[in-house]
Amino acid sequence: MHSLNVMKQLLGGELAGMEDYVIQVADTPQMLDAVAWDALLQCQSHPTPFMQHAYLSALHNSLSAGPDNGWEPRFLTLTERGGPHPALVAATALFIKHHSYGEYVFDWAWASAYEQHGLAYYPKGVVAVPFTPVPGSRLLARSATERSALMRVLLALCRACDLSSLHLLFSTEADVAAAADAGLMLRHGVQFHWRNRTPVYRTFDEFLASLAQDKRKKIRQERRKVSEAGVVFRHSTGHDITASDWAFFYRCYERTYLEHGNAPYLTPDFFRRLAHDMPTHWLLFIAERDGVPIASSLVALSQPMAHTTTAPSAEKVAYGRYWGALERVDCLHFEACYYQPLNWCIEHGYSVFEGGAQGEHKMARALMPVQTTSAHWIAHPAFANAVAHFLEQERLGIDNYAHALAQRNPFRNGLEP
């Protein structure tokens, strides 16, 4: 781990005024205090299981995201100086990237423009969770002041490492505010999330009753096709997900990638580590026909089952993550990835189901568009100006897109829950 003295040598005068903090950079999650990291995460406005120490460790130790495949980690921490028990006050996960895969905020055109002008776009800096387009807290900090200090050190580190750029992906309002104050440019996108209403739905049929007739009819038809094909579902959470269930899930997950001509990003060892180190954050659906498993979908849970939190936002969220099938059944994808999870969320009092990146078809299943935000710093002044112009034009396009989506409201009388 690089200490403050090493950082001072790297960053020179850019750390002036940071004497209240011990600044360190770790190359592996094993060099971090896992308890302190997770405690800081739980104090954020939007903690997710994907920023937990165990999840980041699983990515690294399973070789799913590491230096060998273009994700060089730099875990940056700020600890208050002095006192018998100095507290961790700010931290983030920075990755030095040598490509743009696995990010879901696309900058291929920026990289191409750099290359056309004889400049190197890679390596670049990315603050994100690899392969995980889930909005959540990225700049973990005890206060806005410490978040701004963390942002300042991040930029200084990027300059010291001669990175072309820094990209803060799928971040929260607090993160965006610190990034904007530091001069980063903002970029918006759209995802589709389902939200329970107030008062909450008590049954799936009650949820259906809130939809327009054509949407309600379509969902019932899709569910009927799966049922008439003889497919039934079972689900398991936490320690009830067996090793054989996890192994079957990976077969399905791998098959999906291979059918699209790609090897899967995540290794079997990654999922074994999740099952061992953070089991209560997972919900697994398995589809069976004649007692034989044929498909599965994996959902992450914001909180362990039956767990309460003192975090500023205690809203319970389910995250649709991965799915795959060994047999083709009409509408099976919709049942496994939307209707089964939504029914489970209603039964277990979950407020939000996040359906992942892209997919306008999700609106027909009552997953509504929400804005996502990333922030970007470009080292080269001329390219920074060009990107700023591009982002302004893109923002207008996103605004028009969101307006068009709003005209396709699936709820009765156009009213959302």
Question: Topology, please?
Answer:
Blueprint: H1 4-11, E1 21-26, H2 34-42, H3 53-61, E2 71-80, E3 88-97, H4 108-116, E4 124-127, E5 140-141, H5 144-160, E6 165-168, H6 173-181, E7 185-195, H7 204-209, H8 213-228, E8 231-237, H9 243-259, H10 268-277, E9 282-289, E10 292-301, E11 317-325, H11 332-347, E12 352-357, E13 368-378, H12 381-406
Parallel strand pairs: 4-6, 11-12
Antiparallel strand pairs: 1-2, 2-3, 3-4, 3-5, 6-13, 7-12, 7-13, 8-9, 9-10, 10-11
Short description:
The protein has about 425 residues and is α+β, with helices and mostly antiparallel strands. The protein has two domains: about 5-190 and about 370-405, Gcn5-related N-acetyltransferase (GNAT) (Aminopeptidase); about 195-350, Aminopeptidase, CATH 3.40.630.30.
